[in-house]
Each structure stands twice: as structure tokens, then as C-alpha cells.
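Marked as duplicate of an earlier ticket. Keeping the data here for the record.
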Amino acid sequence: MAKKSFKAKLVGFILTQGSKKKYDKPKEKLRKEFMQEKEDGEKEYIFPHHLKLKSNIKKEKFQQYDIYILSPKETFTQTIFYFHGGGYVHRPQKSHWKFVDQIVNENHVQVIFPIYPLAPFHTYLDMYEMMVPYYLQYLEKEKNQKIIFMGDSAGGGFALSFYQYLLNQNKPIPQETIVFSPWVDLQSNHPDMDKIEKKEVMLAKNSLQVWGELWAKKENLTHYMVSPTFYDHLERMNHIHIFVGTDEILYPDIYMFYQKIKNSNVKPNQQNIELIVGERMNHVYPLYPIPEAKHSKEIIAKILKKNLEDKYEI
């Protein structure tokens, strides 16, 4: 069994004392508290300038939403659309900004970071109404950019669903998609989740189910536009890279999703689908300042370098 670093254990302990305690409650109590708080979905987002990021940062307005663009000092030919996690109910955290800032400056890429609509005020339909026109307009304007989708947790799930939606609509898809602990099934009812939940330091099954029902309007939990594991044409997916930890409750669904993609293709050797498993690692572990995340960033760098050199026929 892989040895877990002290920093990884410390991060896990801190997360257990925070989000896990807050959300590990009965569903009805969670739903009532959540609707009373209404979280931060309609508040104006305040960018954490005190982090002193190295990237050039610009803010745009699209429709009524803020979109942040982080770019390196050097010229770039790759643009990452980054979709942050947070269960579709929370704004980005400091860890998101630190992570994408590092990706920008170590790999000389641009990151487009939308502050997208959240539940309970909005559903997945509002997210698509925002992202589809913005994405297509960007492609029309920046024809020479290579595009990567990237996201963590809920944002990773959306990155995969958005990719599938573009396939269905015969629209241009990204050259690469890199996701960290993606939420691929909003039902959150895999039988193995209960066994792993004892080791999970951040998420709770009940809160996932409440958030998923709000985001998907409940009746749409098995629609691919919210749960990419239910896509009918998984064999069409390619250049997908999935990072996941074994100690997170999303691991069983993510592993099943990966297997479904691999088993869907009659020529699997022609399909570039990669599952990178962090033994004893927690949810979205590549985003945290732990030794185990260093290897993840090295893999990301290799993917981006290869993407820069390759010519794709999509």
C-alpha cells in the first residue's frame, strides 16, 4: 500500500474538520439549511487579489456572469477552459486559483475561468445557456488556439458532459480533456460509496444527493448533460485524462465510468482514455500543496506538451 505523506494527512484532517462536518447530516436537514442559507450563488463574486498570483488577470462580462482570464507573460497557443468544483452550489476556493495560476505559468497556457450560475437559483440549463455561446464565440475569434477542457469535482463532471454535448451537436470539441475527481453520476448512489465514506474527508453522500437534485431539477439525474456516465455514445470520447483518489466516495462511479468508456469501443487501442489513480488519496488531491500532487502536475505538463506538438483530426 502506498505511503501517504504527512502533508496529505494534514490536509485531510483539516478538510474533515471543515466541509465534512458541515455536510455529513440527514438529507432533509441539509436541504432545509441549504435553502435557508441560499449559500453564495447570487452574491457578487469577489476575486481574491490578496493571493498575489503571477498570471496576468483580466475580467470579462458575458451575459450577466463574470469570466476571468489568466494568461502568462509569454505568448501562448493553448487555452484551457477551467470549470471549478463546489457541488454546483459553491464559488471557487483559493486552492482553485493557486492551482490554475501554477498551470498557467509552468506550461505557458491561458486559462478561461467562468464564474458560472449555481443552484438553487439556477440549474444545469442555465450553465449551458452561458457556456455554449461563449465557447463557440471564442473559437470563432481565436482560430489558432488549441483547446483543453479541465475541471475538478462538479466542474470536472460538467467538462465531460459539455464535451459530450458538443459531440452530439457536431461542434468543435477540445483536443484534450483533463479532469480531477469528476462527479459523473449525480444520483450518487453507488453501493460501494458507503464503505468508502468512512475514509472520505471532504464529501458526504447525503449532501451530494441534495445538491444533485437541485442542479438537475431532480427528474434529470440520469441525463448525460448532468451525469456524463449515461452518455449513449461513450465510444466517441477520446483524449480524456481522469485523476481520482481511492479514498474518495466518487471513486466507484469514476472507475465504472472509465470502464464503460473502455468497453464501449471495438478498437480500444485507438482511444486515448487514461485513468490516473492516487492510492490513499482524497478528493481532488492534485489541487492541494502536497507531494503527491507534484506527480499529477508532471503528467498534466506532458499532456499539454504533447497537445502542443500533435496535429489532431477531430
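See parent ticket for discussion. The domain at 6-309 is CATH 3.40.50.1820 (Rossmann fold).
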